[in-house]
């Protein structure tokens, strides 16, 4: 299955941890939303209700994350069944794509699994998320994901943040040679995106642009730790990031 590549102007994707952030991202000018739940876990699949209502509210591209739990990306049979149901739901409500990734026990990309996901998702496109950054060989993983039919790879260049991984990101983009999109993500902000684009040559970027919003609930039990403030997309940060991106 071949993925058609189109040369476009720079694209900003926002990782949104709730429907409010997805709407903020759209209104601030982002091109795409990766919808997730649970920021503390690094993102897991949102509920069916969140998926359906967000799809209704957005006119920009929506790529929900398909990740049944936090932790690693080695899944059992039941988790595979969950992912298939979630992928088919995303397809049924008109999502343009999904963001996901699976690995083997030795850390390498599960290519058989990724091919199966691409088949289930079609005609939606598939972004391989940062499972890529936990693989032992970035260049081998790149070729494997091209072979699986993925549209893009979200990566920080095997470093904690994309600015730290800029040198490898540049090499990955050169090796990809238009066969797959390399999208830097993690630690991307308005303050560094211009330098990151110049250093890597990337055309797509990923950021949560999030800020912590104080809870409107006036009473908080100090003994209960699973309530309180929430992460929300920062419209001004998104706008500044886009301005910096367009200035390059």
Quick summary:
With 248 residues, the chain is of the alpha/beta class.
Q: Mind explaining what this structure looks like?
A:
- With 248 residues, this protein is of the alpha/beta class.
- It has one domain: Alpha-Beta Barrel (TIM Barrel), CATH 3.20.20.380.
- It is built from eight helices and eleven strands.
- The protein has helices at residues 19-28, 48-57, 77-92, 111-121, 138-148, 166-176, 193-200, 235-246; strands at 11-16, 32-35, 61-62, 65-66, 97-100, 125-128, 152-155, 181-184, 204-207, 210-213, 230-233.
- The strands form three sheets. A five-stranded parallel beta sheet has the order 4-5-6-7-8.
- Helix 1 (19-28) runs parallel beside helix 8 (235-246) and helix 4 runs parallel beside helix 5.
- The protein is globular and about 50 Å long.
- The two termini are 34 Å apart.
- The relative contact order is 0.16.
- Mean pLDDT is 95; it is low at 1-7.
Poorly predicted segments: 1-7
Structural class based on helices, strands and sheet pairing: alpha/beta
Strand order of the largest sheet: 4-5-6-7-8
Approximate helicity band = 25-40%
Main sheet overview = 5 strands, parallel
Number of beta strands = 11
How far apart are the termini?
34 Å
Order of helices and strands: EHEHEEHEHEHEHEHEEEH
Task: Supply the CATH superfamily name.
Answer: Copper homeostasis (CutC) domain
Number of helices: 8
Radius of gyration: 17 Å
Q: Architecture, according to CATH?
A: Alpha-Beta Barrel
Estimated share of beta-strand residues: 15-25%
CATH class categorisation: Alpha Beta
What's the CATH topology name? TIM Barrel
């Amino acid at each position: 299955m071949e993925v058609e590549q189109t040369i476009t102007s720079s694209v900003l994707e926002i990782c949104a941890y709730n429907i409010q952030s997805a709407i903020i991202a759209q209104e601030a000018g982002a091109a795409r939303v990766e919808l997730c739940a649970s920021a503390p876990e690094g993102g897991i699949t949102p509920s069916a209700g969140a998926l359906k209502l967000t799809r209704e509210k957005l006119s920009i591209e929506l790529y929900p994350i398909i990740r049944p739990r936090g932790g690693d990306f080695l899944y059992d049979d039941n988790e595979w069944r969950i992912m298939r149901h979630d992928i088919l739901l995303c397809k049924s409500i008109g999502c343009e794509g999904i963001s996901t990734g699976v690995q083997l026990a030795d850390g390498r990309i599960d290519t058989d699994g990724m091919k199966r996901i691409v088949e289930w998702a079609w005609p939606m496109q598939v972004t391989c998320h940062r499972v890529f950054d936990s693989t032992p060989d970035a260049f081998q993983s790149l070729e494997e994901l091209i072979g699986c039919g993925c549209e893009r790879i979200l990566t920080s260049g095997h470093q904690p943040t994309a600015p730290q991984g800029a040198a490898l990101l540049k090499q990955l983009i050169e090796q990809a040679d238009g066969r797959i999109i390399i999208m830097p993500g993690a630690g991307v902000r308005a303050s560094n995106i211009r330098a990151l684009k110049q250093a890597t040559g990337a055309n797509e970027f990923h950021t949560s642009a999030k800020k912590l919003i104080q809870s409107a609930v006036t009473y908080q039990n100090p003994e209960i730790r699973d309530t309180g403030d929430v992460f929300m997309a920062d419209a001004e940060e998104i706008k500044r990031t886009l301005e910096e991106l367009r200035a390059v």
